[in-house]
Write a structure and sequence with these properties.
Elements (H helix, E strand, L loop, with lengths): L1 E10 L2 E6 L5 E5 L6 H13 L18 E10 L2 E10 L4 E5 L2 E2 L3 H7 L2 E4 L5 H4 L2 H15 L3 H20 L3 H41 L5 E6 L9 H7 L1 H7 L10 E6 L2 E2 H4 L2 H23 L4 E4 L8 H13 L4 E5 L3 H6 L5 E7 L2 E4 L1
Parallel strand pairs: 3-13, 3-14, 8-12, 12-13
Antiparallel strand pairs: 1-2, 1-4, 4-5, 5-6, 6-7, 9-10, 10-11, 14-15
Bound molecules: adenosine-5'-triphosphate.
Length: 360
């Protein structure tokens, strides 16, 4: 998938701006506060329905305005799609695909597979399990089409169980729903486990490129104890505890991807720069696996490419991005990056200044 054109209306510091990126490397250059990250954020909205920065969606709407609107024209397998995303201060969201309103964000997201790398991406390793589940589920969502509907059903049943637990009504009605919750929960786990098994060789290959000095291992923890033969058994065993807490403590919503370097938790062993390299490898590996399994390409968004990487590793990352033959958006204070790392390939440089975009 390639973005042919992108238009931003009243998004952050952009009043009305557009760009026609190249199919390859696009460098977004500009001073601090010019709007580089905001530009990446606007693309990210199509793939995730939200920003990657903290704060409410209201902060994305330009000050003094009622709504922002984003348009993108994409090209995939010789078909063009027109996508629209609008959010208003009153919370209303409008999605459009090819001139029709689209009720489901998941359908828009399927059109725009994205991998994001920012200085904050190390939270994938340092942060809680939710970050790693989101990472993993991006892959499962884009590769296994039944995953999303299973996840929606599971979330509904989980909400219902939690409400019964809170109201201490589980003993009256809960047993029946638990079996359904467990069946769907097990299916979600199977899809994740099968994904990680197929994905593991890609991970290993890329990690050797970026961090050859460590021996990494990855283990997907299902979200319930191995001492239980099934999720149904775990839910049954934990019902008294769950009633006390008022929520469900076992299930795929508690899964985690354990990442070990030389047998130790990666977050306690690696330096900040090494964590960034690990995350870089994780993101690139997921993009490669996605391409090999679906014959589609994702778009890479790289904010502040030079942050925390030495020159050798910056060059490695750039060469991996070029090799991916995907569309890439990288931000940098200076366009010098283009000459240093991307001079051999066709690339576009866009200058951003106070929310205005000009190409070279
Ligand atoms: N809702 C908004 N309305 C108007 N301006 C905004 C809004 N939200 C943020 N801004 C401004 O937009 C500008 C662009 O911020 P952005 O983070 O995109 O810059 P950047 O070019 O990535 O900067 P840096 O190089 O420092 O990371 C900032 O000056 C910020 O104050």
């Amino acid at each position: 998938m390639f973005i042919k054109t992108l238009r931003l209306e009243h998004f952050r510091n952009f009043s009305n701006a557009s760009l026609s990126p190249s199919k390859g490397i696009n460098v977004i250059a500009g001073a601090n506060g010019s709007g580089k990250t905001s530009l990446l954020e606007s693309i990210y909205c199509f793939g995730f329905g939200r920003s990657f920065r903290p704060g409410s969606f209201r902060q994305l709407i330009q000050h003094e305005r009622e709504q922002f609107t984003l348009f993108a024209e994409t090209l995939e397998s010789e078909s063009t799609h027109k996508l629209g995303f609008r959010r208003s201060v009153n919370g209303e969201t409008t999605l459009r695909i090819d001139s029709a309103n689209e009720p489901k964000l998941s359908n828009l997201a399927r059109h725009v597979p994205l991998q994001l790398l920012t200085p904050e991406s190390v939270e994938l390793i340092l942060g809680g399990p939710k970050n790693r589940r989101q990472y993993l589920d991006w892959g499962v969502f884009h590769v296994e089409h039944q995953f999303y509907s299973l996840w929606v059903s599971y979330s509904k049943l989980l909400k219902q169980r939690n409400s019964l637990l809170k109201q201490r009504r589980w003993h009256k009605e809960g047993k029946y729903w638990d079996q359904q919750l467990a069946d769907i929960g097990e299916k979600i786990d199977e899809l994740r486990q099968s994904y990680i098994e197929r994905f593991r060789p890609y991970l290993s290959r890329l990690i050797v490129e970026f961090l050859p000095e460590y021996d990494f291992s990855f283990e997907l923890r299902s979200g319930w104890s191995k001492q239980d033969a099934s999720l149904a058994d775990a839910l049954n065993r934990l019902v008294e505890q769950d009633t006390k807490y008022g929520y469900t403590t076992a299930g795929p919503h508690k899964a985690d991807l354990r990442i070990l370097a030389n047998g130790e938790d990666a977050k306690v062993l690696l330096s900040r720069g090494q964590l960034k390299l690990l995350v870089t490898a994780l993101k690139l590996a997921q993009g490669r696996f996605f391409t090999d399994t679906t014959s589609r390409k994702c778009v890479y968004l790289v904010d502040d490419l030079t942050a925390e990487l030495d020159r050798q590793n910056q060059a490695k990352l750039c060469s991996a991005l070029v090799q991916s033959e995907s569309q890439v958006f990288v931000t940098a204070i200076s366009e010098k990056l283009t000459n240093d790392y991307f001079s051999e390939v066709a690339n576009n440089v866009f200058h951003v200044e106070h929310g205005r975009i000009t190409d070279k």
